[in-house]
């Protein structure tokens, strides 16, 4: 459970609560998106007018995890200070700090993703992961991390969480997510576990439709429920509900229309709050996602979302104010229920010290920034952590013929079969990091990224070209190809083309999905590196040539030799 508030903190909460008008109470339950304001974000006069009309309680800032990090830390900090100065009540600033503060802010440190942390499987490292995320994040103005992910990768075709989770084992996910959470909250940022009741079972994406966690009650409590109970018991401040249905808890009507957690009283109140004892802030997932939109019209969606037990609605839009005011007036939403949510929100703000925000808007608990970074010694520590994790996570999944490590004395010319061209005209230039590392070793690198005709590779061989090693690197960023994490399109054609060759034994290297052997089962050699994090790419090449050991252990069942349908432990629902 969370730490009790002091008398002074509780007094501040109650005074602030009683000072709020109905509209201000409603505003506390809405989180706005700073990147979607209808005017230039640094226009102070416009912001003053906006907050006077729409007194929201929190803002999302930084890049979204499904897109990319953007902006400078100093700019975010200046913006949050200005907002705090002009807001009547202290604001919270959240962000997708899933893989370090650099996963939201381009100028800060991006860590290898959670799946890489699971491959290292070190609780002390996980605590540091959360600690330095919080130190950099709060310095940039963040007070609320929409992290860590506590989902489980139980379906190899799931397109949403892939490297955003801690693998397929509930015990490991519980240990590591709790350590990340403690690191965050010990250093001044509220953690938000996500996505209740758990993603990773369905093969579909709740950005498009409501997805289903189809585990039985017993299965759920031994997996997702185990992770959730552990992080709740250890005091996580907030929990995000997803647009994910949990059929075992609903009545028969759920078979006709899936009930997402974001509108389900049985999931949010009866299960999460009452049965599991969560007493923190419940935040919905983004309310512009297809898995929520299908529930009904705007008014029904918003009222059902709030009434099911949600405290803060993520990006409902400013129409929310009028809908809620009318719902309170006609009794569909009770003022007591509204005040209960606002009390929880203010209690979280008190635990974060937001009541001490200065008159000028400054955050006295935030570390200083020097040239857009933490002070030199701390900056060195956070980057050392990032590199250490990169070295610890790289996993040799299959080495059937003993091809690795490669001999640097005999490997001089190599082939790189690019698998990152998923659709015509779309490429991911960060794959060039891998090629650059090979060239930096003085290797001659031939690149095959066009596969018309399919026999291109075989024709090269017949012309007398020979390679000492061939690499098949794969990378697909989240939503790089909507609704899949697999090699599709031109990338799938590359797999087809590869099999026309007769002289190469390709080394597969996945910088994304850990399940590449499902789509390329003929690979004798596979390395999982989990991301194109710069240090990870460099150290992966070193490991390929035997200069450092492979230290990671696969956080999922990744080698399906003898299990041609991938059926063991990986259920397709």
From TrEMBL:
Query: For this protein, what reaction is catalysed?
Result: Hydrolysis of terminal non-reducing N-acetyl-D-hexosamine residues in N-acetyl-beta-D-hexosaminides
| Protein EC | 3.2.1.52
> Which PROSITE patterns did the record assign?
GLYCOSYL_HYDROL_F3 (PS00775)
State the source organism's domain of life.
Bacteria
Q: What Pfam families is this protein classified in?
A: Glyco_hydro_3
What are the protein's UniProt keywords?
Glycosidase, Hydrolase
What family is this protein classified in? Answer: Belongs to the glycosyl hydrolase 3 family.
Question: Protein name, please?
Answer: beta-N-acetylhexosaminidase
* Species this chain originates from: Paenibacillus phytohabitans
């Amino acid at each position: 459970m969370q730490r009790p508030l002091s008398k002074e903190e509780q007094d501040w909460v109650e005074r602030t609560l009683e000072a709020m008008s109905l509209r201000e109470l409603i505003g506390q339950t809405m989180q706005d998106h700073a990147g979607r304001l209808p005017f230039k974000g640094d226009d102070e006069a416009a912001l003053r007018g906006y907050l006077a009309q729409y007194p929201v309680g929190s803002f999302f800032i930084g890049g979204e995890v499904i897109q990319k990090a953007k902006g400078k830390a100093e700019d975010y900090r200046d913006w949050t200070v200005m907002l705090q100065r002009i807001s009547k009540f202290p604001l919270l600033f959240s962000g997708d700090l899933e893989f370090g503060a650099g996963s939201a802010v381009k100028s800060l440190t991006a860590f290898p993703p959670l799946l890489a942390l699971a491959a290292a499987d070190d609780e002390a490292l996980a605590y540091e992961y959360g600690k330095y995320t919080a130190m950099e994040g709060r310095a940039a103005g963040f007070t609320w991390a929409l992290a860590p992910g506590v989902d489980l990768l139980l379906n190899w075709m799931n397109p949403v969480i892939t490297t955003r989770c801690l693998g397929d084992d509930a015990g490991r996910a519980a240990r590591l997510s709790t350590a990340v959470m403690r690191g965050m909250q010990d250093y001044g940022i509220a953690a938000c576990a996500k996505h209740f009741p758990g993603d990773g079972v369905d093969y579909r994406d709740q950005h498009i439709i409501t997805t289903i966690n189809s585990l039985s009650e017993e299965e759920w409590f031994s997996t997702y429920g185990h992770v959730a109970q552990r992080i709740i018991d250890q005091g996580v401040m907030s929990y995000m509900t997803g647009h994910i249905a949990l059929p075992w808890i609903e009545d028969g009507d759920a078979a006709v229309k899936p009930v997402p957690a974001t509108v389900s009283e049985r999931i949010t109140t009866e299960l999460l709050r009452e049965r599991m004892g969560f007493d923190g802030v419940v935040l919905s997932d983004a309310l512009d996602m297809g898995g929520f939109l299908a529930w009904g019209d705007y008014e029904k969606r918003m009222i059902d979302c709030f009434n099911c037990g949600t405290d803060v609605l993520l990006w409902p839009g400013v129409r929310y104010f009028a809908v809620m005011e009318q719902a309170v007036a006609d009794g569909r939403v009770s003022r007591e229920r509204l005040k209960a949510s606002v009390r929880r929100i203010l209690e979280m703000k008190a635990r974060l010290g937001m009541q001490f925000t200065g008159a000028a808007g400054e955050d006295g608990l935030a570390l200083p920034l020097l040239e857009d970074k933490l002070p030199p010694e701390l900056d060195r520590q956070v980057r050392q952590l990032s590199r250490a994790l990169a070295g610890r996570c790289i996993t040799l999944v299959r080495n059937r013929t003993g091809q690795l490590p490669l001999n640097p004395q005999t490997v001089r010319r190599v082939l790189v079969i690019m698998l990152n061209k998923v659709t015509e005209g779309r490429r991911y230039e960060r794959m060039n990091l891998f090629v650059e590392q090979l060239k930096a070793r003085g290797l001659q690198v031939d690149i095959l990224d066009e596969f018309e005709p399919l026999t291109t590779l075989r024709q090269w061989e017949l012309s007398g070209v020979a390679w000492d090693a061939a690499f098949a690197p794969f990378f697909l960023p989240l939503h790089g190809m909507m609704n899949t994490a697999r090699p599709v399109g031109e990338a799938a054609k590359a797999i087809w083309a590869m099999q026309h060759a007769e002289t190469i034994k390709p080394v597969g290297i996945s910088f994304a999905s850990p399940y590449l052997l499902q789509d390329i089962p003929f690979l004798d050699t596979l390395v999982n590196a989990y991301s194109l994090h710069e240090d990870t790419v460099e150290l992966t090449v070193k490991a390929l040539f035997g200069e450092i050991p492979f230290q990671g252990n696969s956080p999922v069942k990744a080698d399906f030799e003898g299990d041609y349908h991938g059926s063991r432990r990986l259920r397709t629902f």
